[in-house]
Amino acid sequence: MQSCPHANSCLTCPMFLTTAEFLPQHRDHHRQTLQIISTAEARGQGRLAEMNRQVADNLEKIITSLQEDDRPGDQEAGADAS
């Protein structure tokens, strides 16, 4: 594992690769991020909430993509559609 000085930068990095194996971690991270947003909004910390909305949006995209890739038969359906 390499260290990185940029918090959550992997979520927008074009070199970031993940698999369905990590769906539980991505879902957990998403839940934690939603809690941070909720707490930040309650405290009037708009900038913190906005920064974490971007993280939550990126995690949603990752989770959705991995769920679609993890479904049996999706690869065949994708090949048929092209």
> Looking at the structure, what is the overall shape?
globular
Strand content: under 5%
- The Cα radius of gyration reads 16 Å
Q: Determine the oligomeric state from the structure.
A: single chain
Structural class of the secondary elements? mainly alpha
Please report the distance between the alpha carbons of the first and last residues. 37 Å
Q: What is the average of the pLDDT values?
A: 83
Low-confidence stretches: 74-82
Written as H for each helix and E for each strand, in order along the chain, the element string is HHH
Largest sheet: none
If you had to describe this structure to a student in words, what would you say it looks like?
The chain has 82 residues and is mainly alpha-helical. It contains three helices and no strands. Helix 1 (23-42) packs antiparallel against helix 2 (46-70). The model is unreliable at 74-82 (pLDDT under 50). It has a domain at 19-69.
